[in-house]
Amino acid sequence: MADIYQDLTSNEWFYPSSGYILSETDSNGIITYVNDLFCEVAGYTKEELLGQPHNMVRHPDMPRIAFKGLWDDLQSKGFWTGFVKNRRKDNGHYWVYATALRRERSDGSVSYLSIRVKPARSDVEACIKLYAELKAQE
Ligand SMILES: Cc1cc2nc3c(=O)[nH]c(=O)nc-3n(C[C@H](O)[C@H](O)[C@H](O)COP(=O)(O)O)c2cc1C
Q1: What is the reported pTM?
Q2: Does residue 4 carry a pLDDT above 60?
Q3: Which CATH superfamily, name and number, covers 21-136?
């Protein structure tokens, strides 16, 4: 089995103090929209991102239960907030504080939006510990 950690670097991209990283998916989590900051931060072009599953930016340090919570909350409550470590194309990473929303149009179609802002460093430090513990239980 390929080692999912082998190419990762410890380079962190730090969120600027302003700006929003936005993305939208269809009901299956396929990316349908990204803004310019998303591309800059993740290191991909729009063309590379659109039509791909959102786990394209998944970092292996993220515990599975975090995304189970995201999808469960989107179904049951229509929204989710949480801290996410994402992987950049260059194998570095970045942390965000994300709010995801379920959007139902009048024709019944469902899409999901995520808006991400700069996380407090103290929250990132707490999540590094928590997510490592959760990963260890997988
Ligand atoms: C609107 C929206 C935004 C998402 N943003 C991210 C993200 O930034 N990073 C990420 O790893 N997963 C994100 N996800 C969750 C992914 O769809 C997926 O569940 C997760 O990456 C785990 O994938 P896996 O179980 O296939 O490994 C998002 C999902 C939705 C609906």
Answers
A1: 0.93
A2: no
A3: PAS domain (3.30.450.20)
